Amino acid sequence: xxxxxxxxxxxxxxxxxxxxxxxxxxxxxxxxxxxxxxxxxxxxxxxxxxxxxxxxxxxxxxxxxxxxxxxxxxxxxxxxxxxxxxxxxxxxxxxxxxxxxxxxxxxxxxxxxxxxxxxxxxxxxxxxxxxxxxxxxxxxxxxxxxxxxxxxxxxxxxxxxxxxxxxxxxxxxxxxxxxxxxxxxxxxxxxxxxxxxxxxxxxxxxxxxxxxxxxxxxxxxxxxxxxxxxxxxxxxxxxxxxxxxxxxxxxx
Length: 252
Known about the structure:
By secondary structure, the chain is α/β, with parallel strands linked by helices.
């Protein structure tokens, strides 16, 4: 089964747009759990544009599934993670001017990355790196001591949405399959995330060793029409129900 991590950042985005106390990310998390969410993800950004510090604390205290804390590699975020103690942390690159995370993390840009990973693991957190489907970076992730990778699917999703043939779709998914196999053979958990939505998430079923998909914007958007519980349930089915699995017969 592919686990579904539901990212609630944009519940907080709506709340903050009017400076109100609603919608509440914790209430949203509990509805997501009812829909079958296997974990809850939130990203506390440096500029606090959506999730706030108190959201992270309340989520950790009140949800019944693991909390995945997305964070930049800064002293401030490391200190918060060590205080809150989420089940898992996903280390991501972060630029203040970006609308959303634009790509995977390059380990070469962070001199203290190995120390940060070791420090977080000593506090009983599973550590994942948000990276591109790149053989070199996956090898570095293992060498640095991380437990998992989350492969950035943003570019994959844009290209998949534009594809006009099954052969082209197959060409796009093959690199993800190869990266997942490489990471699994190295002993890393394999997660995917960014840009996945209701017209492309079913492709995760074609990827061997895919253990988890973290999805936020698409689910929160769908929830406007059908409610959050139903939106989560639909996405969980796309990831796991064999009726939605891509038909790859005859493609190589």
